[in-house]
Amino acid sequence: MKRRLLDIIRCPVDGSEFDLEVAKSRTEKIDDNACRRVFGDSVNVALIKEQYGEEILEGTLVSRKSQNTYPVVDGVPRLIPTGITHPAEGSGDATEKTLDRHPDERSPESFGRQWSNYQFEDHTWFKDLQLRVREFLRSMGMVDEGLTGALLLDAGCGHGALTAAIAGAYGIEAVGMDFTGAVGRAQTSREKFAGDCAPFVHYVQGDLLQSPLAPVVFDLVHCSGVIHHTPDPHRAFQSLLETTKPGGRLYVQVYRKREAWVGIPNTMIRGVTTRIPTHWLWKLCVGAVPVHTALVRIVAAARGERPMLADATRRERAVSLFDNYSPRYQFRYRPREICQFFEDAGMHAIEDTTLENEKRHMVAFVGVKHTMQDALGTEHKHVGIGATVA
Predict the structure, then answer these.
(1) 199 to each of 10, 90, 168, 190, 319, how far by Cα in Å?
(2) What is the pTM of this model?
(3) Per-residue model confidence (pLDDT) at position 100
(4) Which of 68, 92, 93 is nearest to 78 (CA)?
């Protein structure tokens, strides 16, 4: 954790800023050219090195309003209120309850187990990391211009590889947040994938429904495959919107509502699988891979398509099954319904940026948050990709 993160995080209970008590830290080398690449040629390099040159490995964050305390463990602030049970990496261990029970205790355990089984070299959702990085700008409705000085939030970052790779590829400062213990692996991701931009990549353990993020701080907010697994997707969307700057871009990707012949059986199966302990369900998913793969190939052949999992490993296919059948919540949407989220929020320049290789399963939109000038009717220029709403 860098001290810079104190500008970005807040107590998820009272919303106040933090004081930091450092127990263990180290000095991190920062490249001058990386500073200029991320913040521009006119940046004060000495000041940047002062803000980002110390990596806090262990410590305590104390909220200024109510004196709530949160640990920094392995360089990651753990900003989960103690009344919410978020076991680390599917361990099943519960923290002591001091607040109301969280309405969804299974999903953190499910996703923690899922991301602990994913390896950095795996094809996440059957795509290699380089492809996902290239698709990032298309998803955000942007081109590789005007990113200097931008601050990115990757909400639901898992083990953090994509967050780090995007920062390294495009030279931006990034914050990855996840509500599972898998984010503890993210420090390795940072060093492995961000290159000389690693000092400008931060990770936080936090929950969108009790957000530890300050309002209006991010220029770019990227949230892929997350809010439909929360008990209240609309509230999660609002949480993302609140942390987006006026004029900033917000991208959300969710599950698409499927045809009845697919959706109804899936719902029936989930009625059973979401009640199976996650450690047993993982084993069942691994065992079911050959049958599921055969069914997917048959359906793809009938449609004249090539299944995305053609070159996937057994573990990658098992993770995909587990992702579908384990989490307690799974909401699905039509494009018009997600577009309505953005319209109701008063956003503009709303675009359907669902990728061609995901249209059968996913829906994705991006929008621009209104500024004061927009409210006064001033034309807002943006770089994007036109699209229609189905």
Answers:
(1) 21, 29, 10, 8, 30
(2) 0.87
(3) 38
(4) 68
Closest CA to 12 of 60, 57, 69, 93: 69
Note whether 1 and 72 are within 8 A (CB). Answer: yes
| Alpha helix segments (H runs only) across the chain | 32-39, 45-52, 106-117, 129-140, 161-170, 186-193, 233-242, 260-273, 278-303, 314-325, 335-344, 372-375
Write the pLDDT tens digit of every residue in 357-389. Answer: 888 899 999 999 998 656 445 443 333 333 334
Look at the block and give the residue holding tokens 């994705």: 364
Cβ 74 vs Cβ 57: under 8 Å: yes
Cα 39–chain centre separation: 23
**CATH number assigned to the domain covering 3-254:** 3.40.50.150
Q: What are phi and psi of 277, to 5 degrees?
A: -50, 140
Largest CA distance in the chain: 61
Helix (H) or strand (E) holding 350: strand 348-352
- Residue 275 burial by CB count (10 A; 0-12/13-18/19+): exposed, middle or buried? exposed
Q: What are the domain boundaries of the chain?
A: 3-254, 275-325
Give the pLDDT confidence of 348-365 residue by residue, as tens digits: 999 999 999 888 899 999
Burial class (CB in 10 A: 0-12, 13-18, 19+), 359: middle
